[in-house]
Amino acid sequence: MENILKVFSEGLLQFTSGTGLWTLIIFGLMLLTLWKFAWGPIINGLDNRANKIKSDINEAEKAKLDAEKLKQEAQKKLDDATDEAYRIISKSNLQANEQRNEIIEKAHKDISDMKTRAKADIEMDKKKAVAEMKQEAIGLAVVIASKLVRKILTREAHAELIEGFIKDYENKS
User: Are 103 and 96 in contact (CB under 8 A)?
Assistant: First the structure.
């Protein structure tokens, strides 16, 4: 603090007209020099910087728009791929259902065919059994009849009966 008071008291900071005029002249020359040599480059530098910032902002906005466009395209492709996947799954499900129905229909048809064949086989076996039973019955009837005929027919009647059969056979041949 003492040093500051000493500077004021010695007159170094006192205003006089001569020093004031020279101060103004030097300030003016300095201002002109700065205006002529420094102000233009500073303003140009600031303008260049402002232009660069505007350009960077425009490029950033363009990049943002491009990124948004790419994002929308990617989303559209993803949606298309999802739709295609759903179509493929739906088509596969339909084909699986059709195949299942075809297999079921074929199984029903095979079962129906097997039933029909089984019924036909049963009917044929039944007819064979009836025919065999008839043959057996006829055979038994012949045996019984021949036993009865032997007892009833005498030798002469039997011989006449055999001769009648032989004549009938000869006439047919």
Answer: no
